[in-house]
Amino acid sequence: MQVLVTGGAGYIGSVLIPMLLDKGYEVKCLDRFFFGKETLNDVMSNPNLELIKDDIRWFNPKILKGVDAVVDLAALSNDPSGELDPSKTFDINYLGRVRVAKLSKEYGVKRYILASSCSIYGFQDIILDENSPTNPLTTYAKSNLTAEKDVLQLSDSSFTVTVLRQATVYGFSPRMRFDLAINGMVLGLFKNKKIPVMRNGEQWRPFIHIKDTSRAFLVVMESSEDKVNGETFNTGSNDQNYQILPLAQMIGEALPIPLKIEWYGSPDQRSYRVNFDKIKKTLGFKPDYTPKEGSLEVYEALESGKVVDSIKTKTVEWYKHLLNIYATVKDIAIKDTIL
User: Fold this and answer.
1) Which domains are delineated in the chain?
2) Residue 242, Cβ neighbours under 10 Å: how many?
């Protein structure tokens, strides 16, 4: 079975692709490689892996020939990155991914899985399931929701479409990100002996370890069509809904450094608690890892030098860096290739 993973060299993709290869799948990785190919160094020599440097907005659809399933991870991947250029975010996160889904169907791909986000729930006081009202507050969240609606309309008896609304991801990845809540808390305690907490700490978020969310894509891909076709699944677990301040305190207790809190920013405009019963009951999926385990994993990676904090570990800062490199380029077409 052959799988195409878009954005496969990214934070989740660089964990998911080794999982797929370990299970014997042939994998095509479609990526711009803005963060380098080294995120896949451990599997680069695997004969079942093919790297394709291209963009979901204009790749040659012939690469879809022979592909059985597509896991669509490619996106500008958080709220600050999405606001760098909202029109480009819409082009990539909405139009680009809908293009992938439509071409997949046209070329006979049997399964398509869209990586979405629980951020589409925005700010709400109730516990939210897949049928709850959405309230996307950012360009990133709005693009996810519009992509969801359009790709789900493509599902039929010959084309299985599934949407995974992922909780906020944490844990070590070869393409490390410290712009995610738990990972950033660990980095702050490691570097500055303080955990950064966005005011006022009462906001709710659901969380999931990167290995668990990667495994969720595998579970969906290997489930019978009648369970997943045309379906949306919140991806996480009920017991990993946390308020940010108690979460920071829990992480501080798990790490070998005395806990100090460093407040920053204005009160968060996003707060949501999510119900994950559907994915557990329908697919038997439940996470294996907790924030305590994930934070210790990231801390040990920092302490050992396995991961080093750099501009590449903060997505929006790296994109700004790439844009600055081309700031003096007069050819707009060349600039446009950055985003």
Assistant:
1) 2-336 (3.40.50.720)
2) 21
